Amino acid sequence: MDDGADVELAAWLENRTTFEPPASFVEQANVTDPDIYEAFEENWPDCWERAADLLDWRRQWDTVLDDSDAPQYEWFADGQLNAAENCIDRHVEAGRKNQAAIRWVGKRGETETYTYGDLKRETEAFAAALRDLGVGEDDLVTLYLPMIPELPIAMLACARIGAPHSVVFAGFSANALETRMRNAEASYLVTCDGYYRRGDALNHKGKADRAVRNLDWDVETVVVDRLGGGLPHSLGDGQYDYGTLVDDYWGESVEPVVRDAEDDLFVMYTSGTTGEPKAVRHTTGGYLAQAAWTSHAVLDIKPDDTYWCSADIGWITGHSYIVYGPLALGSTTVIYEETPDYPEKSRIWELIERYEVSVFYTAPTAIRAFMKWGKEHPDEHDLSSLRLLGTVGESINPKAWKWYYEHIGNESCPIVDTWWQTETGGMMITTLPGVSTMKPGSAGQPLPGIDAKVVGEDGEKVDPGEAGYLVVDRPWPGMLRGLAGSDERFVDEYWQPFSDPDDGEWVYFSGDSAKVDEDGYITLLGRVDDVIPLGDFRIGAMEIESAIVGVKGIAEAAVVTTGSELLAYVSTERGYTGDAVLRRRVVDAVEDDIGEVAVPDHVVFAPELPKTRSGKIMRRLLEDIATGEELGDISALRNPETVGELRARLAGET
Ligand code: WTA
């Protein structure tokens, strides 16, 4: 295409606000019936049987929803199944043992393919090993692994024997791992010796050892040899070589443990408004049903597809849409260990071409980076295998949406902008790609059967165009079943704000603000609490702040985001100055307490942080200063003079 036509197309795209799904997509889509919304509504909650029917059950359920103990809802409660059996065995039994289940691409360009047959043998061997190490049904196993095949294998081995897993993101620090293991009283850990990043080998086991050393109970640790140099012959007490275990147990068959639908499949730690991370509980039946159903209806995954979600398995997106959803449907899932621009910026597109990926699911922050790197990278590759594109994690601005649509999707792939959370387990608000009109920037309507709406402080729906709080009125199968060890916090954080328990009315509060248009399309506006979405996952501002104020000489800290960068405003105690040494200590403290992922891009030292007369730090104002927004009236501040000072320091810093 010549440059003139390119400019013309860009201008045309720029002004377009709605897009219809391409006919070529609709013709082959899994869900195409526009009446599905009404059909679900009329038949609620039994409509959700359509999701559960995508799975194989050992015992059929009688009751779809039990709401007698709300908000402790139960779904398909008297049904029984095993998640690993649904993700592996049934595909093998259907004669598909040679189909690729996982295509793994490692950081050094290594590739490995696991067929469903391979996956069955390897998970069974590891399940047998775990069982012999003493892991029983309902014993929690912590998995602290990077994006290597052993991570999904360990998850599925746990699922096979009915042991809930708790995956801790590999980029988290020793302290963060320790907090999570302590909170869960975890006695089993699977980790690795190290892993590569941009060619360098990182010592991962050192972090795992530090965490375990601080626990005052015994932990059995399995270590994967990821660096490839072999593990030391003697690993230390209670430590086992994954490779040796799998060899020893190779060929053993392990019957999948029959689980009740409401038995836990996993816990996933996530951030809230306080410093203490929350252990979100997900169950076997409802979670898996929603993950499979949304993979089918929204991601349009078919068994023959090679599908790629670029998230990390350490977050909920990877759990639901790299592992459980795509494998439950028997498709091929790509697992990519490296960052998207290494060893070169066309890596992702090269792999899409090589594996003929048909569905690609990523985060807007990645798309913005792709845009910055330039369209020449995708242009170099044949991306015609792509049929559908998706995004998750934050709102996608229309400009990025259109770039994705044009340069990656070649204007022939619908885009699904999917809103959901760790707590919801699966997608909640997005378009059905074979049915709905798309509006760049807006996630879309709630999915069929999902009762999400935007309400004011009073809990009443707001008018179209007005901002309000995003709530979900009726339960859904993939919803969290609670926070491990904290029933009170479960009710306080999610239910108390908009429910009327005396009237038996329970309304789930998402923590997000949103607005809705005349067609019922929901546009997300951001968090209303101090939780910061960072693309693939989220972190509580408070968690980072408490790490920072732990540094000697620091008085106060407030962390905000501009959308693309993380900033920490930090005030010092008398006698200390915000110099390079203190800055280093701040960075080290965040790295030690949480991990490198949460280190602020900028640390702005200030004599004082702006506060209200009642002494509350004005975060919104700090955000506006960071983004360079027009500031409103600041005369009501206790210390308005700090504002000019902060601006000057930020200008010096950035
Ligand atoms: C944000 C990730 C706008 C939101 C699956 C939510 C989004 C938080 C979108 C959950 C989207 C997620 N548009 N915002 N499509 N998807 N979010 O638990 O603030 O890591 O509450 O789950 O990410 O983050 P979490």
UniProtKB/TrEMBL annotation:
This is Acetate--CoA ligase. Residues 35-87 form the Acetyl-coenzyme A synthetase N-terminal domain. Gene3D superfamilies: 3.30.300.30, N-terminal domain of ligase-like. GO terms for molecular function: 3-hydroxypropionyl-CoA synthetase activity; acetate-CoA ligase activity; AMP binding; ATP binding. GO terms for biological process: acetyl-CoA biosynthetic process from acetate; carbon fixation by 3-hydroxypropionate cycle. Residues 95-480 form the AMP-dependent synthetase/ligase domain. Residues 543-616 form the AMP-binding enzyme C-terminal domain. NCBIfam families: Ac_CoA_lig_AcsA (TIGR02188), PRK00174.1 (NF001208). Keywords: ATP-binding, Ligase, Nucleotide-binding. Its EC number is 6.2.1.1. Belongs to the ATP-dependent AMP-binding enzyme family. The gene is acs3. It comes from the Archaea.
